[in-house]
Amino acid sequence: MSKDFRIAPSILSANFARLGEEVDNVLAAGADIVHFDVMDNHYVPNLTIGPLVCEALRKHGVTAPIDVHLMVKPVDRIIPDFAKAGATYITFHPDASDHVDRTIALIRECGCKPGLVFNPATPLDVLEYTLDKLDMVLLMSVNPGFGGQKFIPYVLDKARKVRQMIDARGLDISLEIDGGVGTGNILEVAKAGVDTFVAGSAVFGAAKDSDPHRYDTVIGALRAELKNA
Fold first, then answer.
1. What is the mean pLDDT of residues 53-69?
2. Of 77, 106, 113, 149, which is least surrounded by CB within 10 A?
């Protein structure tokens, strides 16, 4: 498996009154990807942000990959808007699309990298037919809708299965996990085959006093754990 680990802080836990500065600070501290959670109060019980915020981050000067996780239903209508706004990856839940293959193709046609997202209890069956068309598989290790939840351990078994599928086909696909990841479990998650780690509360929650240097500390601690993987 890949040792090229990537840290993807979720801006869901950031201070939205200072969002551009917050993103600048976590990237300067060593984060690799900006994880962008989109919720519609329909597919999931919460309402967050849309393409205008993604576009604003690009205009602010953010050049790092932006990983847009669509927790919306239906998904196809909003995909071109996020592509135009500067998304790098666009991931969606297969049960939120009437035609999964078509949605994957739409993301690719819009110039973005497609990915599928699986909730903790959602089967992986659809990957049998779609894996070779993806750039990312995202496993939710909490039920989506809110930040700060506890990690669901059985998702590690799913991670091992997806890693086996990716490696068996010789594909170059990111395996990402989102929910309850921190210094206490990131090593175990990495050993299950994950290479990209969404961390919201663990990163942004470490700097409630608005001291950006604390991002260096927490991201450094995550990296230190990963050295043992």
1. 98
2. 77
Task: Say which of 32, 40, 178, 195 is annotated catalytic.
Answer: 178
In a domain, 1, yes or no: no
Catalytic residue among 32, 37, 40, 195: 37
Task: Identify the CATH number of the domain in which residue 204 sits.
Answer: 3.20.20.70
Furthest CA-CA distance within the chain: 47
From first CA to last CA, the distance across the chain in angstroms is: 10
pLDDT number for residue 85: 98
Please give the tally of structural domains in the chain: 1
pTM of the model: 0.95
pLDDT, tens digit, 9 for 90 and up, residues 105-126:
999 999 999 999 999 999 999 9
**Sequence-ordered list of residues with C-beta below 8 angstroms from that of 138, at least 6 positions apart, any chain:** 69, 91, 115, 116, 117, 118, 176, 177, 178, 198
Determine the structural domain holding residue 115 and report its residue range.
6-226
Does the active-site annotation cover 178? Answer: yes
Q: In sequence order, which residues have a C-beta less than 8 Å from that of residue 222 and are 6 or more positions away? A: 7, 182, 183, 186, 197, 199, 202
